[in-house]
Design goal:
The complex is a heterodimer of chains A (105) and B (561).
Chain A lengths: L11 E6 L8 H13 L3 E6 L6 E2 L3 H6 L7 E7 L3 H12 L12
Antiparallel strand pairs in A: 1-4, 2-3, 2-4
Helix pairs in contact in A: 1-3
Chain B lengths: L1 E3 L1 E4 L2 E9 L17 H29 L2 H14 L2 H12 L4 H17 L3 H21 L14 E5 L4 H6 L5 E6 L7 H8 L4 E3 L13 E5 L4 E4 L3 H6 L12 E2 L5 E8 L5 H6 L5 E5 L13 H14 L5 E4 L27 H5 L3 H15 L7 E5 L5 H21 L7 E6 L2 H5 L1 H7 L2 E5 H8 L18 H16 L3 E5 L9 H7 L3 E4 L4 H10 L2 H13 L3 H10 L1
Parallel strand pairs in B: 3-4, 4-5, 5-6, 10-11, 10-17, 11-12, 12-13, 13-14, 14-15, 15-16, 16-17
Antiparallel strand pairs in B: 1-8, 2-6, 3-7, 7-8, 9-10
Helix pairs in contact in B: 1-2, 1-5, 2-5, 3-4, 4-5, 10-12, 12-13, 15-17, 18-20, 20-21
Classes of the chains: A alpha+beta (105), B alpha/beta (561).
GO molecular function, one term (chain B): phosphoenolpyruvate-protein phosphotransferase activity
Main location (chain B): cytoplasm
Subcellular location (chain B): Cytoplasm
């Protein structure tokens, strides 16, 4: 499959704290990659304070980051739909996966 | 031709042999790159990808139907790994350089697997996912026939080197007529699941089993522990099975004492077989199955659903849920349980629920108390595993009350279920009096009770003779427990292999048990035995057995009865 990349534009970025308990693993990772793939923009993800950014279209690379719940990540997107992509990806990482139980103690 | 193994589900079945060989994936020798047609290899790779994609999508759908959307999500991740640009690009360029498709796949996945294996626990699980996908691709490339365990044709006798618990859980009891494996023992988890699904099974047959050819006519006799190829009429007729007519209603002894014969349940798939075999409710709902083989604990809503589903399957019968019994040999990766030298003597059951995992306990209690207020919730009972001290039981009851107060404060509907405790340690048997005073019921878990009373590892064949509840020490611990319950107006049940042995039903009735709970498969046979038992004779038998000083004497007493 050939993906036509839009002309280069200024990359947008956003720093997001990972909320789901599973971190950027399992289902959140899977949804993250799935969502990233829906956009034409070129998207990367990595630790906010690191230089480990990888392509968000690769499940292998994204899970390989081993990002845990509570860590902050930097998402960058470059392309026509960059802003929409960042909005969705941010929403995904800031939504708890399951209804979290309250701890009464 | 007859081969012998260990009968594990005491039922018989005849069908067509089908081999399950999950790991037979030897690559051919790699040819010189100049001899490889890269275009043809590229096409083979794309075909294999397409096949794998189709299989994974099918697995996803089945998992969603059988287990739930959450668990099906793992297959979504599989699809993404399958199409991963890093993996695919590397594989395709290796193919372009003259590597055959299977070697390119094996090399690149091998690299990724090694990379994940080098990381911590959760990442190692990703390695399992990658292995799974690699094997799908290789099976397709090497034209190794795959067997989809959840979609076997009717009348299949499944033959395998070994089956994992998850392999077994995938099986459809309606289409699998029997199982025979080269390795494995009667108490392996796979064997227990097969029993719960009422699939005839013989395990540990040995290498001879591999001589049986695909497509052969095979009889699996789980009572005799034999596997017969091309069985003749006589052999078919003689095939054993503790099967008896199914009796839906609760049965009584010949002189009218009602005994509940319930089923042990370790998963939702086991509910239907239990209902079909006439179980009077559930005597042991192993809630830990909800926590195994997944990435994070089930939330309150999921647990509530599982409990109410079980209650709905038995609208008029009691359902006894055992709170989370992890630790021991049941690993739950995401809980980070500490490594222990003696896990069976370490943090397990109620010890974890009151200690390191009190949060899980609270969530579970919330789900239970809410389920008790649901449509069929009247008959819900809850019991705590591995208790050894009165303080633990008092603390557990306190937790139940505090959860009730929370729910009350939130305006959420709840009700108090019956509360009980498992008697599976000598400490609990000695304290049975004080326990029965505080609780509605006691349930004797004979597998663990025997293990702890006899100080014997139940997985260790060298001391298998010690692991028999017919040792006088175990029988007396049971007797002590029953008397304590009787004296305190509590009911007393038994869950464990002993309860499901129809040869012991009279003895157990004589010992005074009110309820027997077992793998669903033996429910009809035990009900039949109950109906044929007279309590006065049974009491004499129990007295004789309790008077014995050795296991040999107990066996003699039972033989004479």
């Amino acid at each position: 499959m050939v993906i036509a990349h839009p002309p280069k534009q200024e990359a947008m970025e956003r720093i997001v704290k990972v909320v789901p308990d599973a971190g950027l693993h399992a289902r959140p990772a899977s949804q993250f990659v799935q969502t990233a793939n829906r956009f034409d923009s070129e998207i990367t993800v990595g630790r906010a304070d690191g230089d480990d950014a990888v392509g968000a279209n690769s499940m292998l690379a994204v899970t390989g980051l081993n990002i845990e719940h509570g860590e902050s990540v930097r998402i960058t997107a470059e392309g026509d739909d960059a802003e929409a992509a960042l909005d969705e990806l941010e929403a995904l990482l800031t939504t708890p996966v399951e209804d979290e139980e309250e701890d009464s103690e | 031709m007859k081969r012998s193994g260990i009968g594990s589900t005491p039922l018989s079945g005849v069908g067509t042999a089908r081999w399950y060989r999950p790991s037979d994936l030897t690559l051919p020798e790699q040819p010189d790159p100049s001899a490889v047609d890269s275009d043809a290899e590229q096409a083979r790779f794309e075909d294999a990808q397409a096949t794998a994609r189709q299989q994974i999508e099918q697995a996803r759908q089945q998992a969603a139907e059988r287990v739930g959307e959450d668990e099906a999500a793992v297959f979504e991740a599989h699809l993404q790994f399958l199409d991963d640009p890093q993996l695919v690009d590397d594989i395709e360029s290796a193919i372009g350089e003259g590597t055959p498709a299977e070697h390119a796949v094996d090399d690149r996945f091998g690299e990724a697997i090694a990379q994940f294996e080098g990381m911590d626990g959760r990442m190692a699980e990703r390695a399992d996912d990658l292995r799974d996908i690699r094997d799908r691709l290789l099976r397709s490339l090497l034209a190794v026939e795959t067997v989809d365990l959840s979609a076997l044709p009717a009348g299949t006798i499944l033959l395998a080197e070994r089956l994992t618990p998850s392999d077994t859980a995938e099986l459809d009891p309606d289409s699998v007529a029997g199982i025979a494996t080269v390795t494995g023992g009667r108490t392996s988890h796979a064997a227990i699941i097969a029993r719960s699904l009422a699939i005839p099974a013989v395990v540990g047959v040995g290498e001879e089993l591999t001589e049986i050819e695909e497509g052969a006519d095979v009889l699996v006799d789980g009572e005799a522990g034999t596997v017969v190829v091309d069985p003749d009429e006589d052999e078919r007729a003689a095939a054993g099975g503790v099967d008896a007519p199914v009796v839906e209603e609760t049965v009584s002894t010949a002189d009218g004492v009602e005994i509940e014969v319930a089923a042990n349940i370790g998963g939702e798939a086991e509910l239907d077989p239990a209902v079909a075999r006439g179980a009077d409710g559930i005597g042991l709902f192993r809630s830990e199955f909800l926590f195994l083989d997944r990435e994070s604990p089930p939330d309150e809503a999921e647990q509530y659903d599982a409990i109410t589903t079980a209650l709905a399957a038995f609208p008029d019968d009691r359902v006894v849920v055992r709170t989370l019994d992890i630790g021991g040999d049941k690993a739950v990766p995401y809980l980070d349980l500490p490594e222990e030298t003696n896990p069976f003597l370490g943090q397990r059951g109620i010890r974890l629920s009151l200690g390191a995992h009190s949060d899980l306990f609270e969530t579970q209690l919330r789900a239970l108390l809410r389920a008790a207020a649901s449509e069929h919730g009247d008959d819900l009972a809850v019991m705590f595993p591995m208790a050894t001290q009165i303080e633990e039981v008092a603390a557990a009851i306190e937790r139940v009350e505090s959860v009730a107060a929370d729910l009350d404060g939130e305006g959420v509907d709840y009700a108090m279920p019956e509360l009980g405790v498992m008697i599976e340690t000598p400490a609990a048997a000695f304290l049975a009096d004080s326990l029965a005073e505080r609780l509605d019921f006691l349930s004797i878990g004979t597998n663990d009770l025997t293990q702890y009373v006899m100080a014997v590892d139940r997985e260790n064949d060298a001391v298998a003779d010690y692991h028999d509840p017919l040792h006088p020490a175990v029988l007396r611990a049971i007797d002590r427990t029953v008397s304590a319950a009787d004296g305190n107006d509590a009911w007393v049940g038994m869950c464990g292999e002993m309860a499901g042995d129809p040869d012991l039903t009279a003895l157990l009735v004589g010992l005074g048990l009110d309820e027997l709970s077992m793998s669903a498969v033996t429910v009809p046979a035990v009900k039949q035995q109950v109906q044929e038992t007279a309590t006065s004779a049974a009491r004499d038998l129990a007295d004789d057995a309790l008077a014995c000083e050795t296991r040999a004497e107990v066996l003699d007493v039972l033989d004479e009865s």
